[in-house]
Amino acid sequence: MISRVTGSSALVRAVPFVVFVGLTFFQDKFGDAGRYWFYLAKTLAGAGMIWAMRPFIEEMRWKFSWEAVAVGVGVFAMWVGIDSFYPKLDVLITKLGLGKAAAAQASWNPHEHFGQGATLAWFFIAVRIVGSSLVVPPLEEVFFRSLLYRYIVKQDFMAVPLSFFAWMPFLVASALFGLEHREWLAGILCGFAYQGLVCLKGRLGDAIVAHAITNLLLGVWVAWRGAWHFW
Fold first, then answer.
1. C-beta separation of 229 from 106 below 8 A
2. What is each CA distance from 83 to 79, 88, 183, 229, in whole angstroms?
3. How far apart are CA 39 and CA 108, in angstroms?
4. What is the pLDDT of residue 141?
5. Which of 29, 153, 186, 187 keeps 20 to 30 A from 144, CA to CA?
6. pLDDT tens digits, one per residue of 101-122
């Protein structure tokens, strides 16, 4: 039986992530302009949840190390480098006959909606980069690496050291993390890298930093190269 303390520890790690993912589901339901304003609202909500979580999750502290920087840069290079070599999740699902092809989703390109070089366009690009770099990493790392990985090992997950390594939770948590992304293969490899970093360092903060660096570099790449399909 899960103790009340363990249950509360799980909820404080899971609920913010679930809420954030739920908000993401509704992001494109409010028209072309609404999706950008909704992302801003979602980012502010995510930041508020992170602030509320901090006193209860001791391991949610950013930790800078050369390993974190190396993993963050390496994952970014991998994410971009293998992009053209595998079918994306929606295409794969259709090819495997597991679902119908979804209607093409409009790319996240504020220049198309607000005008090339418009102030609002650059504002929302900045919001996206800040949100993906500072809000997404803590929420996802706390859920996948602090909670899910250890919970698969043992229901009393708080008794499992962050440095503990086991193949089943390593593969399962990384696979689920990857399938959260359209770029599923890059996401799975990304999950391997971040989880390996947590096990290596015995702390979560390095993975948060690595995740933030990856997303920051990817956001700059998207804005610089016009590679809007990554968003």
1. no
2. 6, 9, 8, 10
3. 11
4. 98
5. 29
6. 554 556 789 999 899 989 999 9
Q: Name the residue type at position 16.
A: P
Angstrom CA distances, 217 to 60, 113, 137, 178, 198, stand at: 22, 24, 13, 19, 21
3-state SS of the chain?
A: CCCHHHHHHHHHHHHHHHHHHHHHHCCCCCHHHHHHHHHHHHHHHHHHHHHHHHHHCCCCCCCCCHHHHHHHHHHHHHHHHCHHHCCCHHHHHHHCCCCCCCCCCCCCCHHHHHCCCCHHHHHHHHHHHHHHHHHHHHHHHHHHHHHHHHHHHCCCHHHCCCCCCCHHHHHHHHHHHHHCCCCHHHHHHHHHHHHHHHHHHCCCHHHHHHHHHHHHHHHHHHHHHCCHHHC
Residue 63 class from Cβ within 10 Å (0-12 exposed, 13-18 middle, 19+ buried)? middle
How much is the pLDDT for 73?
98
Q: What is the pTM of this model?
A: 0.93
The two three-digit tokens of residue 170, written as one number: 């390593």
In this structure, which amino acid lies at residue 93?
Answer: I
Least Cα distance to 125 among 231, 28, 210 occurs for 231
Residue 204 token pair: 């979560």
Tell me the backbone φ, ψ of residue 64, rounded to 5 degrees. -90, 130
Contact 49, 16 (CB under 8 A): yes
Dig out the tokens for 32 from the structure. 């072309």
Q: How many CB atoms lie within 10 A of CB 111?
A: 17
Q: Cβ(182)–Cβ(89) under 8 Å? A: yes
